Every structure is written in structure tokens, then in C-alpha cells.
Amino acid sequence: MLADAPSSNMNSPISSSQGTFPNSRIENYEYPNSGASSSLSRFNADINGSDESDLLSLSWNQDYGCFAAGTSNGFHIYNCEPFKDIFRRDLKSGGFKIVEMLFRCNVLALVGDVANSHYPPNKVLIWDDHQRRCMGEFTFRSEVRGVKLRRDRIVVVLEHKIYVYNLMDLKLLHQFDTMANPRGLCCLSYHSNTFVLACPGCHKGQVRVEHFGLNVTKLINVHNSEVACFTMTMDGLLLATASVKGTLIRIFNTMDGSRLQEVRRGADNAKINSIALSPNAQWLAASSDKGTVHIFNLRVRVFGEDSVIHPNALQGPVLLHQNSSTALDPLISPNTGANPNSSLSFMRGFLPKYFSSEWSFARFRLPGKTKFIVAFGSHNTVLIVGMDGSFYRCIFDQVHGGEMLQKDYVRFLKR
Description:
Elements: E1 14-15, E2 55-60, E3 66-71, E4 74-79, E5 84-90, E6 96-101, E7 107-112, E8 123-128, E9 133-139, E10 146-149, E11 153-157, E12 161-166, E13 172-177, E14 187-188, E15 196-200, E16 206-211, E17 216-221, E18 227-232, E19 238-243, E20 248-253, E21 259-264, E22 272-277, E23 283-288, E24 292-297, E25 302-303, E26 318-319, H1 353-356, E27 358-359, E28 362-365, E29 372-376, E30 381-386, E31 390-395, E32 402-403, E33 405-411
Parallel strand pairs: 21-27, 28-32
Antiparallel strand pairs: 1-9, 2-3, 3-4, 4-5, 6-7, 7-8, 8-9, 10-11, 11-12, 12-13, 14-15, 15-16, 16-17, 18-19, 19-20, 20-21, 22-23, 23-24, 24-28, 25-26, 29-30, 30-31, 31-33
């Protein structure tokens, strides 16, 4: 039996209707063959045989190897490299506005659309596809705006609240307030030895960063305007943010809140739809409603297994930073220097902020005004998926930049 969400000063607004995860296997799971279709097991007679559906949402898995598409009839899971439709569930009862994968394992978090007669948008379903059953359900008094998964945690985002649960027994571990967050903004680190969470703070332009392993909370004032989008590196050490103006993207050290770099998407206001950081923190990609994906060259030195230098004593990326609000020299990689596309770089100490912000290194132009989200693929490739049901894989020149070359294009869902 599901319990209504209590007021904020009470315990977790959750019930687990079908057992807990100690009785389930969380493991890598080979999904059914491409095109396989079935209903969720609680609705065996509820199969929708139609291939026509509306696209409600898109989301990457944690390593950008797959993406999930929530549709008006259910959801689809796609592999990126090579592109392949690997898994789907179709229902007559309605679709899912949130589909969150846990890497490539059998566990998914699902939130229904308003038209879903079985799963309303105030309920989170934790689904074990290997056993074809629901392992737990979270029910809240208000609409769920976002869900994030780690191998050990579930994070549920409401408009003014965030709840953190233990994945194995579904117990509430943390909860805290945010300012109004209708976009469901939240991101996590995914390295097993760090647990960092970023979410809106309680004031405009502020991001709250929780370093749970260190028991440290950092409030970072990232913009003067409302925050529209942000992301972190896999280890949670770097944070990239954009405001509702959409002209600047800023990169911060999450440990001390210092600003490390600022890049400029353009001069006109725009809606930033997504930001991605490459695994080695050398590149940043951003998509906007202007129909262009921009790639920026980051100058923050990060040591780790994906970088050129491999210190023996380090177990993961370590940020080299001196606590100074003005000196950028200790953070600038000696082999990159200033943005090569800026002929004004030699004057950066004397120009206003507009000119000293660095412009994009590479770009790719997309058709129309569709919302696109971006991620980094293998080597110097960028993956782009759009709400028009399109998938692009592009490659950029790491030396000269400029226009990216389209390598793959797939129409994965007809609208």
C-alpha cells in the first residue's frame, strides 16, 4: 500500500510496494534484441501495438554509452556507438516523462506522464527489468521534476525539495530545500570513491554542492540571473553552469567555489538546453535553442587516467588549483594557452569581460528550433539527440577546431 507524502518535517515520503533491492540483482544486463516489445509485467494485458508515439523526454545514461527516450506509449533505450535500438517497453496505459538509466544494468527509474493512467507524475517507479517487476514506488504530494541514479543512491527532485535514498534498502538518507526548480536541475558524480551532488540553492543564481563523503556543503554564486543548466565532471570536482541569459558558461571548482574559466556561447540571449564535459575535462559542449552545438577548449589541468600525466599516487582526477580570485596561471594548461580562435587573446588583461570571455573552438549547426542534448563519445566525437527523434554523431578537429564533420545521422523515432 502506498503512503501519501508527509509534511517536510516528517520521514521519507515513500513506500516500497514490492520488496526491496536486497532481494534483487543489480548487475549489467544484456537487453532484449532490437525492436523487442512487451508491457510492464503489472499490465500484461496492456500492450500497445502501435509504432506511433510522441517523444516526451531524452536522457543519457551515466557514461553516455546509451540514451533513453520517454514516449507517450512507454520508453526506448538506444546504444550510441554503434547506434542501435536495443530495448523498448510499450504500454496502452500511457507514457513516461522521466526515464533514468543506471549505466547498463537492469535497474531503471520511471516517472509517468500526466496521461499515464497507472503511474501519475508524482510517483517514481523503481523497475527491475531483469525480473520484470517493480522493486519500489515513491509517492509524493507534488510532481516529480527529476530523478538521478548512482550505483548506491537514488535522488528524487521536487520543485522545492530534494530527497536522497539508499538504493539497496530505499531508506531516506538526506533531504534539503531548494529554490523553485521546475526544470528538475540536479547532477551527481558517478565515481565510486566520491559522492557529490549539485542542485539549485535557495537564492537566485546559486548552486548548492554537497560533498557527502567529506560532509561539506558549498554554496556557489554562479550567476546574477537564474541558473538554467549545469553539469559536473564524473568525479564531481568541476562544475559548469549557464544562466537563463545563455550567453556565458562558467566553470567552477566545487571544493572551494572558485571560478576557473568563463566561455562565451554568443552575444544574444539563448536557452541553453544541455552542457557536457568530456571525461578528461579538456572539452565542454553546449547546445542551445539557436540551433548550434558549441565546443570549448578548457584550460583546467586535471590529472587522472584520461590525462597525459599519470601520477602513481593518484586514484582519480585531482584538480590543481591555487586559492586566488585573480591569478589564473596555475590553472592554465601550458600546452593549450588562450583560445586560438581569439585574435584578441594577447590583450586579455586589458579588455572588458565581453572580449576576455573565450569563444567556441568548434561548432555544429542543427536544423530548426528542436531541443537537442549533447554528450561526448569516444575520442573526439560529440553525440547529439533531439526531440524531433534525430541522432547525430559528429567529429571535431582537436587542433584546428572549426566546423564539425557529421559522421552518422539516424531518425530513431518518427513524430
